[in-house]
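Researcher: Hi, I'm a grad student and pretty new to this. My advisor asked me to get structures for two proteins we've been looking at. I'm not sure of the right format, so I'll just paste the first sequence and hope you can take it from there.
Model: That works fine. Here's the first sequence with its structure tokens right after it:
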Amino acid sequence: MSVKKKSKPRTKKTSKKIFVNVRDVSKSYQMGEVEVQALRNVSLSFKAGEIVSIVGPSGSGKTTLLNVIGALDYVDSGSISINGRKLSSMKDKELSYLRRDTIGYVFQNFNLLEEINAEKNIEMPLILANLEKIERKKRVEELLVSVDLIERKSHNPDQLSGGEQQRVAIARALANNPKLLLADEPTGNLDSKTGKKVLKLLIDLSKIQNKTLIYVTHAEDSAILADRQIHMSDSKIVKDFSTSK
């Protein structure tokens, strides 16, 4: 008499939902009498919690793509949706709230307020969100610890190194606990060694906090740290592939 082995129950693979959806997007700029096409019929999507690098030469459309995803600029045609909502359907006030609460930005030039210290720079988004003072203090302390700057919190930007300034910028971007982080050449103004440390910090914090991170870079050694690479050329997507093992 043969005994049938009990089959193991099948486990369903849970796929992460699409958080950012870009559909057939085009964007052009007028430079004098010349019209420059920055994006040509770009379509792609980003899953929640995904770490993605956008790579390409100068003028390929990388920064423009980041700007339209981040609601910092408008598209000429096509559509962009974040968490299921089309940006084109949102009023100005809704877009303002989206930029404040859902999206965190990290810029190449840091964009810190020079007249206030690191602690106050990080606190600014929380003030704009009308968070109570005691809650702001607690959140800022958490963020300073996460970027290892607690000992430098009283220093103004001109008293900080480039790497420290970018870490302040990362903490500021994370202040309101956004679901989406957009970083435009976050290591562009840093030396190679410092840049790698800063990018690793940004990626590690995004993974720990389950953020969707999209960062622009021209450096291949920075691009490969992402789960996925998107290569752009002449305002179009030319490659889109996974780099995760």
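Researcher: Oh nice, that was easy. Here's the second one.
Model: And its structure:
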Amino acid sequence: MLRTRTCILLVAATMASLQTAHAQQWGNLKGKFVFDGKAPEAKPLNINKDLECCKGKHLDEGLVVGADGGVANIVVYLRTAKPKVHPDYANAGKEPAVLDNKTCKFEPHVLGMLTAQELEVKNSDQCAHNTNISPLGGGGINPLIPASGNVKHKFTRQQNLPIPVSCNIHPWMTAYVLPRDNPYFAITGEDGSFEIKNLPAGAELEFTAWQEKAGYLDTPTSPKGKFKKKIAAGDNDLGTIKLKASVFKLK
């Protein structure tokens, strides 16, 4: 009797283990955004203050198109609430996300981070900056950061749109920060490509695509910037997504 009961428990445990293993499949979402046609040249910014500190070439980063037509700084992020999170992300967010002031320019121009993560705003310049971040729902900051100084900040809630960042001392300086409750977000590189790793497979998930000039990327594949994708285990490639000038509100 005891042996029979033990066997039943072992079988049940094995089945539960197999079900758990089956449920815990993961997939990667990747794709590439490219400008359809000849992209406009980035315009120089008007640098009219602290010229010794603000050295170098300063171009408008509202639309950054690489040599091969890839569109940088597009944010792709999961909108589906409370997803299963891969164990590899267990330590994500323990190190601060860094936004730096370098030669009177924010680096990076677009930053994705976890809501629970600490934001460190550095000033690598030899002149003072302020960093004005005003998220919806409150919890913003606007500190004066002296030369070679830094400040740290924790957001109180995630945002559904990137938060504009500015420096009132140097008004040409702009950037964006997006805090999210889960690690499923990515920002396109210079070649326009992105990859979100280890998404929960098997379910249809909803994503948002956003870009500074365009806002929500309204395309046939992502109307009003939203698209759904059933994630399969392994790689899920959206391929090359062409973006017309009209998407960026260009004439």
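Researcher: Is there anything I should tell my advisor about the second?
Model: You could mention this: The longest strand covers residues 26-35.
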